[in-house]
Here is the input.
Amino acid sequence: MPTLSQGQPDKSGPEPHRHRQTAESFGVDAERYDRARPPYPQALVDRIVAASPGRHVLDVGAGTGIEARQFQAAGCTVLGVEPDVRMADFARRSRVEVEVTRFEDWQPAGRQFDAVIAGTAWHWVDPVAGAAKAAQVLRPGDRLAPFHHVPQLPDEVIDALAEALQRVAPDSPFNPGLLRGSTVDAYQPPFAKITDGIRQAGSFSEPEQSRFAWERTASPRHSAARTARTWGRTARPGASGPPGPRMAACGRVSVPRPCCAIPFRGAAAGSTRSRS
Ligand SMILES: C[S@@+](CC[C@H](N)C(=O)[O-])C[C@H]1O[C@@H](n2cnc3c(N)ncnc32)[C@H](O)[C@@H]1O
Here is the structure.
């Protein structure tokens, strides 16, 4: 998420939710997406379920249903909201109910939920309008809980990504260089935007942040190829050439080490709907 750059971002940083072409591009290969993305840490799911007054969950940016299936397994009923019909179709095939629309445009039609969650998706939603929409479907005491994967990619993976993007997708808005060093630190500006949006919406308690650490043994080659495919299909509006060949070329990035443990953090922001 923090790897989006747009020329020289202003002091407030880039606004990913304005990159609509990228925001709604994940379904180019929904099956591969679902295979490649890890699930979220169980401790994160358990924390959100325990903090919510009931088990009726709205999942914003549900994608292929990765976290929706985890919340279902934890005893929740989950409704997904997802603008990319290719992702939604995959999620529906895995028994997740999904309504196809951007969250900002979604019609609650009087429905209420105990928790609104978003797995690595809230940065694609307008942070203030999204929090205001969430407030409409939550009662006092209910929870808004956006959370994210924060992978700490090895340097050689970052190098391979940078090289591949430069070669085949120089117009991509992603900047792998921002992933060097501590990715948790790199994620702080976008998390600050998320929590500021929740504050500005004015209907929630002060947001708290939590972190959950775990490691995943993965092949850097696989990680680089997966990330490069995601990024290689993206381009600034008006860029020429179809995304498919860029994806394929990015997928051929190579890195020297065959396998290593990639540290992950799950980072969650939680806020309670206050009385209005
Ligand atoms: C990185 S994917 C995360 C998918 C899933 N939650 C996961 O963790 O695997 C981001 C998802 O947000 C969706 N998305 C983008 N803009 C959105 C918006 N304005 N409202 C709701 N979902 C949005 C994308 O289509 C995509 O499926």
